[in-house]
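Researcher: Quick test of sequence recovery. Tokens follow.
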């Protein structure tokens, strides 16, 4: 199998993850604006939803199909999880399927792993967004959900989450959707870490999945009452 690579002009600065906590407050605004710019990128003659190839072709016919593909047992080896996590993970997958009607058919550029070591900053400005290996076409709220999923793990994610809560309340009009995206992100992380044998992270990721699932169930119960 051949190998591919790309080269780009070197961007000055450091990653968000490498900033000191005291430096984060001055950069979270420009970072949030960068996400808006990414989401407004013209998609030209691209097609489909989810991850795309070098021709701009994504394999899924809808955003909903991509989100729910996480439950496809022919593509995901859920038996690779430790036995203690399998029943709860099956419950989470079922809950995500039940949320199918939540997912809007929005089609924008989504980075897929935004917010920590893939954003380069210098002197209060974003100088580059790197590592597009997880990029896809879909709902930009997915990038917001990634920030909230990793919120307790990294100070830079916590700072971004607080900024979004304080300055962009419009993003939180559908808390069940944001939670469903976090659950999808967490399930993908569980699967990837289990296959890689990174079991030390599984307990933490499982707890984040459970928190997202609780939020979804709470919103469902509130809507029904």
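Model:
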């Amino acid at each position: 199998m051949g190998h591919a690579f790309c080269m780009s002009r070197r961007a000055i600065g450091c990653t968000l993850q490498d900033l000191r906590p005291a430096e984060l407050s001055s950069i979270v605004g420009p970072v949030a604006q960068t996400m808006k710019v990414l989401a407004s990128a013209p998609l030209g003659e691209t097609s489909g939803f989810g991850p795309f190839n070098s021709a701009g072709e994504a394999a899924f016919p809808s955003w909903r199909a991509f989100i729910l593909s996480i439950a496809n047992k022919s593509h995901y080896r859920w038996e690779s999880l430790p036995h203690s996590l399998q029943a709860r993970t099956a419950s989470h997958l079922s809950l995500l399927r039940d949320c199918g009607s939540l997912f809007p058919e929005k089609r924008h550029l989504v980075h897929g792993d935004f917010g920590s070591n893939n954003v380069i900053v210098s002197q209060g400005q974003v100088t580059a967004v790197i590592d597009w290996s997880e990029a896809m076409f879909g709902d930009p709220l997915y990038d917001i959900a990634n920030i909230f999923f990793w919120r307790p793990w990294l100070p830079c994610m916590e700072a971004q989450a607080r900024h979004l809560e304080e300055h962009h309340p419009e993003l939180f009009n559908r808390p069940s959707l944001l939670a469903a995206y976090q659950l999808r992100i967490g399930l993908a992380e569980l699967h990837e870490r289990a296959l890689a044998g990174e079991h030390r992270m599984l307990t933490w990721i499982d707890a984040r999945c459970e928190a997202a699932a609780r939020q979804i169930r709470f919103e469902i119960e509130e809507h029904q009452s």
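The helical segments are 21-24, 28-39, 63-68, 83-98, 141-149, 155-167, 175-196, 202-224.
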